[in-house]
Amino acid sequence: MHSRSSIGIDKLSIPLEHGIGLSAFSLERQPCYVLLSLTCHLKPECLRPSASNGGLSDDWDCLGIGKSVNYSALGKTLYSALSAEQAEGVTSLSDLARMAAEITARDYSASLQAIEVLVERPKALLFSDSVTVHRRFRLKTGEVESCALRDETHTLIVQDLRVNTIIGLHPHEREEAQRLAVDIELDMMRLPDDLLLGRYGFDYKTFGRFAYEYLSKSSFKTIEALGYHTVHQLLQRIPSQPFQPRSATTGTDEYAYQSQDDIYITLTVKKPSAIALAAHPTFKITRCLKDYTTDSPTDPNPSMPTLVPPLRPPPALAGTHDAESLLGLEAEVITAYIAIGTNLGDRIKNIQDALISLPRISEESIGTSFTGQRFLHVTKCSQLYESEPMYVVDQPQFINGALQISTNLRPVSLLRHLKAVETALGRVKTMVNGPRLLDLDLLLYGDRQIVVGQRGDEEGTLGNGCGWLQVPHWGIMEREFVLRPLQDMLGQEYKLPGNEDTIGAQLFKLDDPSQPPALRRVIPLPLPAQPLHLSRGAPLVMGILNVTPDSFSDGSSDRVSDTSLEHVLDLAKSLIAEGADILDIGGMSTRPGVKDTDVSVEQELGRVIPVIQALRIEGIDVPISIDTFRAQVAEQAILAGASCINDVRGGREDGMLEVMARMNVPVILMHSRGDSQEMLSTAAHDYEADGGTVQGVRREMFETVARAERAGVRSWNIILDPGIGFAKSQDGNLQLLRALPDLFGPETGLECYAVLVGASRKGFIGKVLDRPVAKEREFGNAAVTAVCCQSEHVHVVRVHEPRPARDVIQMLLAIRGS
Questions:
Q1: What stretch or stretches form a coiled coil here (predicted)?
Q2: Which one of 191, 626, 761, 813 has the fewest CB atoms closer than 10 angstroms to its CB?
Q3: Which residues of the chain have pLDDT under 50?
Q4: Can you give the pLDDT at residue 576?
Q5: Residue 691 lies in a domain
């Protein structure tokens, strides 16, 4: 312990009219404020009485005057200087911290040994309280210029990152996601300059987003394991040096990626729900990369998707390189991205077959023998889009998407494998850019830039079995049908290695408002149904067909009588004639208050299966949705001819997520809490802990999506339903409809998914209109449809009466287009 003294200012609030860096929603120059905390470490002589008067008592009472720091004057100076028009070159929190230290040193250098500055920006990230930069400067003796400040500490702190994840040893702990609070400290002293001197300094948004996504999708058994592996993942996201040539005698890659070993990250994990009589248990860990040796335990989540771009792309591998240098068998695990497209035959089945075939690696498929395990895991999917053919226009329309994969195949071996999968599934090469049963292109290979051969080289001419290879793929920046799926997974702010423009900026350049959209997003329905095109401003109409006597709004006993099948078929045809794009068939009422035991599985199957089969026998190819929360009913309905699953419990019942993944059909995941009786409780309507109904529903839907994707449900198959009328208060239902952009808009984590709203004839409409009879709420239904259409965040509306809904949509489109 050493004697020392300091004087400081804590949390001085400084408004910044033009902001600093990007907002939580990635907007530039947005007004904000920062909290500045300053600690001035005093020299010992600052607290000694003057020798001139012999140390009288007055001197002891007035220690520091003239020698210490006038905190009042300093506070005013800092406020005035930092809140003024943005100083030139000050674009980051680190810049602000240094500027504050320079101002302090200029006025008080004679009194100070060191200056410590914390600049905190509240609400800098969507999922944490704040981001703080902590810098400590040592003053060189006898110098007062700004250059006399020497960095001793430079740390980034992400405070209270709030995540919900599966964690715990016991079965009851692994049923639902638990809330964790995580603090992350990154030692930035050893970061390379280009990571610190970017447009807005260090990219803490990308860093924080990766941490949030990784933690949310993890499923560790202890907080120790979670902390250990999370730090490792974060450290691996911080490249510090470009590709460096290695000695040819090492037997390793000609080019290998080097990472800094002595950058430290400290992670603190708090688990509030673990101990009833304590605030939380805490685990804290500090590690650098060299702590993770080859003997360290492997991450139990090896296929965890990398959802954000690396913090810095390395420079390109200069020139054209010998393919064999890229064929080495010892390879690191890489996250790569593949484009997938098809315009012949059953296009949806072609894509599904490719997903099954891609992980099946053989010596034949990569064109060389190998020892050890080679793997390829599909870790995430984009949405699917239908596009007009490009370059050669006289051919059928394509369905395009993209896949994120984790693999240890080298780039040339990976490309060979992709071509082998194309061939195995029946692709026959014809003309360049012509029709194809399946097209698989390697878009990105980590953050590397690679060139093998030259454009136009045929397969086999280089002895590598693939011909020309360029990564990133040469055509990405001119192809919306590639950029859009990549944006689904990487975000609009991602920059391809070697490109200055973000994906979002490039898509904006390609957009031509005078032309119809080049891409149409689709729901990939299996035959006999055809893929449905989605439009945010013109929702599809789902018609409700309840084959049950006790639906809350339209049940009647004749629906399930012995002679009811013909009548139900007539009702189905009537819904189609009125404009229903999809039929939603339900055999069990889910209205609040109904017991699950009121209808057995056998009864539910007996109601819905004959109807589905009869519709298909009659040649009706309209998409059919099965409205059920029971896995057995869902599976049997799909096998009988249904096209998708509509689950009011969002996959929470036993076996449902497994059925959804195995059937590989679109699924509607609705937000709700508890069963039909539990959702009536006061507790089920309480979202206060999340800050309100909108925030609570958004968080719980994010968890629902994470569970579904972990279970193997493809992203392009997921449709979200906010669950209007289920476990919501009267005001909560209205708030959700008003806040649809806040639920599903940019930066919510849910913006990539299709959205369905089903509020037709619900009780909250009856309360507003004083219409106790459900069938008399048609004008309220129309208002809800209009709100959904106007929001441009809803792709499907679920209604009892398709014709009025379609009229509302058509009228709004006419007004909008006038």
A1: none
A2: 813
A3: 52-57, 143-147, 197, 240-259, 294-295, 302-330, 460-464, 552-563
A4: 95
A5: yes
Question: Residue 381's beta-bridge partner residues?
Answer: 403
Pair 748, 664 in one domain: yes
Q: In terms of residue numbers, what domain contains 131?
A: 1-157
Based on the domain organization, do 513 and 575 belong to the same domain?
no
Q: Which CATH number is 69's domain given?
A: 3.30.1130.10
Q: Is residue 198 part of a domain?
A: no
**Tokens representing residue 277 in the block:** 């009589």
- Helix (H/G/I), strand (E/B), else coil: 493: coil
H and E: helices and strands count for the chain: 21, 27
What contacts 548, CB < 8 A, 6 or more positions away? Answer: 555, 559, 560, 586, 587, 588, 589, 599, 607
CA atoms within 13 A on the CB side of 124: 31
Q: 597 and 491 in one domain?
A: no
Collapsing DSSP to helix, strand or coil, 321 comes out as coil
Are 504 and 554 members of one domain?
no
- Does residue 472 have a cis bond before it (omega within 30 degrees)? yes
User: Helix (H, G, I), strand (E, B), or coil: what is residue 754?
Assistant: strand
The three-class DSSP label of residue 7 is strand
d(CA 418, CA 235): 31
Q: Which tokens sit at 393?
A: 């226009």
Q: Do 331 and 430 sit in the same domain of this protein?
A: yes
- Apex 182 CA angle, 181 and 186, nearest 5: 160
The one-character DSSP state at 502 is B
Q: Which of 467, 486, 519 is the last residue of a domain?
A: 519
Positions marked active-site: 762, 798
The DSSP line for 234-281 is HHHT-B-S--EE--GGG-S-SEE--B-SS--EEEEEE-TTS-TTSS--
Residues 541 and 512 in one domain: no
Residues contacting residue 405 through CB under 8 Å, at least 6 positions apart: 335, 336, 337, 338, 358, 376, 377, 378, 379
Q: What is the pLDDT of residue 328?
A: 41
Tell me whether residue 197 is in a domain. Answer: no
Query: Where among 122, 157, 192 does a domain terminate?
Result: 157
**CB neighbours of residue 159 within 10 Å:** 19
Residue whose token pair is 């259409």: 789
Task: Name the strand (E) or helix (H) holding 810.
Answer: helix 802-817
Contacts of 573 (CB under 8 A, 6+ apart): 620
CA dist 476 to 14, 409, 435, 493, 503, Å? 43, 22, 19, 15, 10
Residue 316, pLDDT score: 36
- Please tell me the total count of domains within the chain: 3
143 and 22 together in one domain: yes
Residue 101 included in any domain? yes
Which among 332, 327, 287 is positioned nearest to 306, based on CA atoms?
332
Q: Residues near 15 by Cβ (< 8 Å), separated by ≥ 6? A: 31, 32, 33, 83
Length of the chain: 818
Who's near 44: CB < 8 A, 6+ residues apart? 3, 5
Phi and psi angles of residue 627, each rounded to the nearest 5 degrees, phi first? -90, 95
User: Is the Cβ–Cβ distance between 403 and 486 less than 8 Å?
Assistant: no
- Rounded Cα gap, residues 24 and 30, in angstroms: 10
Residue 154 phi/psi, 5° resolution?
A: -150, 105
Are 115 and 104 a contacting pair, CB within 8 Å? yes
pTM of the shown model: 0.60
Backbone angles phi, psi at 662, to 5 degrees: -70, -40
DSSP tag of 89:
T
Task: Give the pLDDT of residue 63.
Answer: 54
651: which DSSP letter? T
